């Protein structure tokens, strides 16, 4: 592989990306576990959803000290995974290491730390810790714990980690190839916030970039648009694929969502604006039988009515409904 940045190809197709960037060391091991998980649920006749969640990083050095990050706490993915489990799906939860996870998200160290449930008891000679769940906390904790235990006992939740955009791209391709046996029973819920730009390893500095030279100029390459091969090659047009579009200018949501559907030919783009994403999203999908026509549907909740209501409950209910219809429609009809 060339290490000369000037002669290195910089316009990546998905094909040239995978031919030149190295897979993460844990890939084979991760794929074997996914294969076992998928086999078990295919045999049980269950639908499987791949939920991606959290932001990808872009390292600036091979011995990485600095990196760019994409915004995402992982709330959307972790919350949605719980509702998919509730709807009877087996869930592959592919998430950014240390971002929120299903069930434990309710007791995140920053918003609801588990240590607050512990009290110190002292007697004459020693101190010990006691778990103290208040009356108010008891019912919600029991509900989360019951759902968590039942998902784990039944082996319905499989978790995978990524950190960099490179990890994400390799994992997504490998997992999609394993899910292909499910045909139309596979659902993709691509909520991870994936970088649009990256630094190919051939252009990275090996060691920490030194500050002596003044300002830092980095030219990044575009991450290949992998939704295209995901839809047409890796899943052979069989899976039900939902991608998310994040914007900060709300007027761009619908045009960008339509553009993505026209380019990649998948089933749904869910548009969300950074500031209102917890209360409303817009579903954009191709109009059945009509070229270049789209249907848009808002899904909204009113937090002033019910503080415990999560928009993901309605998003997942709508997708489960659409996925069922997708399964019932044969590819040729
Ligand atoms: C999303 O739009 C997610 O809904 C959020 C969730 C990242 C906003 P949180 O994790 O946030 O609950 O804090 N994800 C997709 C973002 C993305 O990178 N989309 C790409 C784009 O917009 C296309 S796949 O171009």
From TrEMBL:
Ligase in keyword set: yes
PANTHER family referenced in this protein's UniProt entry, alphabetically: CORNICHON-RELATED
Family annotation (InterPro entries): CoaB-like_sf, DNA/pantothenate-metab_flavo_C
Every DNA/pantothenate metabolism flavoprotein C-terminal domain range: 184-278
GO MF terms held by the record: ligase activity
Domain of life: Eukaryota
Protein name: Phosphopantothenate-cysteine ligase
Keyword entries, A-Z: Ligase
Record-stated family: Belongs to the PPC synthetase family.
Pfam families, per database record: DFP (PF04127)
């Amino acid at each position: 592989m060339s290490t000369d940045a000037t002669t290195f190809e910089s316009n990546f197709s998905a094909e040239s990306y995978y031919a030149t960037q190295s897979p993460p060391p844990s890939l084979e091991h991760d794929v074997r576990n996914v294969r076992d998980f998928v086999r078990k649920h295919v045999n049980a006749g269950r639908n499987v959803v791949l939920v991606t969640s959290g932001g990808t990083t872009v390292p600036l050095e091979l011995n990485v000290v600095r990196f760019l990050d994409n915004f995402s706490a992982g709330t959307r993915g972790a919350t949605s995974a719980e509702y998919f489990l509730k709807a009877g799906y087996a869930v592959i939860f592919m998430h950014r290491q240390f971002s929120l996870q299903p069930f434990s998200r309710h007791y995140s160290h920053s918003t609801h730390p588990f240590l607050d449930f512990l009290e110190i008891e002292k007697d004459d000679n020693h101190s010990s810790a006691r778990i103290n769940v208040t009356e108010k906390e008891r019912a919600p904790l029991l509900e989360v714990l019951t759902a968590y235990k039942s998902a784990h006992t039944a082996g319905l939740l499989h978790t995978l980690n990524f950190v960099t955009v490179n990890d994400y791209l390799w994992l997504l391709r490998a997992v999609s190839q394993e899910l292909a046996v499910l045909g139309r029973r596979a659902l993709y819920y691509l909520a991870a916030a994936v970088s649009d730009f990256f630094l190919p390893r051939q252009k990275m500095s090996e060691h920490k970039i030194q500050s002596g030279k003044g300002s830092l100029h980095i030219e990044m390459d575009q991450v290949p648009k992998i939704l295209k091969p995901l839809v047409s090659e890796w899943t052979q047009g069989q899976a039900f694929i939902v991608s998310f579009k994040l914007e900060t200018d709300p007027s761009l949501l619908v045009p960008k969502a339509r553009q993505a559907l026209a380019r990649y030919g998948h089933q749904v783009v869910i548009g969300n604006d950074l500031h209102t994403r917890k209360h409303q999203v817009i579903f954009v999908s191709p109009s059945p039988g009509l070229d270049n026509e789209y249907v848009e549907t808002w899904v909204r909740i009113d937090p002033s009515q019910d503080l415990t209501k999560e928009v993901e409950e309605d998003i997942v209910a709508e997708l489960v409904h659409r996925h069922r219809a997708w399964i019932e429609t044969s590819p040729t009809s």
